[in-house]
User: Which sequence fits this backbone?
């Protein structure tokens, strides 16, 4: 064996040993969406501090199936202080909608905030009216609280059902759906602040609402 060959052999052997010592290269998973995936509406979900840890994933699944869209869960955040309304120890939903609008991540069309704190808005009669949630008609933001949904909830599952319905309702507004008067069970019916109405609704959109959604 020539000296040169032995030298060459050792170089190959040592490089194999060195390579063998390195950890396996990590497979970087890049989520390349298909063309149809690419066309889907992208919704960012912000969990505000204090919510049940199960909500983000549960809601992501429910929303993606219902609206055939893509939901990104963004890191948990604190509710902004400027939205706090001390006299009633709750948060102004309108201020939260503005805050969420400003927090809309790039390449997302809509943003949804979930909180366990009570939220309120101003309506024709009341200056500060507690609500389940609120959404801008036509987007981009909506917010939902489970604070009032907990009242008289039979169990956790019942509470989650209510939450999902209210979330889908508020997202319906951001997708351009107004309140529905065509069908009592339709998700877009105006609950008028009563939990009974939320319980009566079903997790479905009536034909009239579906048509409106398709024409958007
Ligand atoms: Zn509504
Ligand atoms: Zn409807």
Assistant:
């Amino acid at each position: 064996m020539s000296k040169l060959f032995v030298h060459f052999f050792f170089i190959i052997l040592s490089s194999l040993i060195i390579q063998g010592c390195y950890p396996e290269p990590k497979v970087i998973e890049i989520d390349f969406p298909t063309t149809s995936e690419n066309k889907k509406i992208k919704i960012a979900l912000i969990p505000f501090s204090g919510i049940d840890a199960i909500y983000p994933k549960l809601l992501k699944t429910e929303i993606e199936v219902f609206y055939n869209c893509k939901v990104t869960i963004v890191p948990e955040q604190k509710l902004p202080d400027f939205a706090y309304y001390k006299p009633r120890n709750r948060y102004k939903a309108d201020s939260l909608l503005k805050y969420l609008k400003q927090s809309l991540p790039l390449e997302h069309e809509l943003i949804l905030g979930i909180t366990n704190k009570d939220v309120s808005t101003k309506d024709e009669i009341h200056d500060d009216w507690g609500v389940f949630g609120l959404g801008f008609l036509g987007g981009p933001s909506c917010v939902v609280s489970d604070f009032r949904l907990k009242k008289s909830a039979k169990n956790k599952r019942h509470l989650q059902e209510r939450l999902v319905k209210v979330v889908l309702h508020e997202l319906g507004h951001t997708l351009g759906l107004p309140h529905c008067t065509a069908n009592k069970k339709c998700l877009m019916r105006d609950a008028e602040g009563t939990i009974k109405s939320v319980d009566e609704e079903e997790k479905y959109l009536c034909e009239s609402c579906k048509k409106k959604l398709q024409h958007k």
User: Anything to note?
Assistant: The CA atoms of residues 172 and 188 lie 7 Å apart. The beta strands are 42-47, 70-73, 84-85, 90-92, 110-115, 119-121, 129-131, 133-135, 141-145. The two ends are 78 Å apart (CA to CA). Helices lie at 3-21, 35-39, 55-67, 93-102, 156-174, 195-200, 207-214.
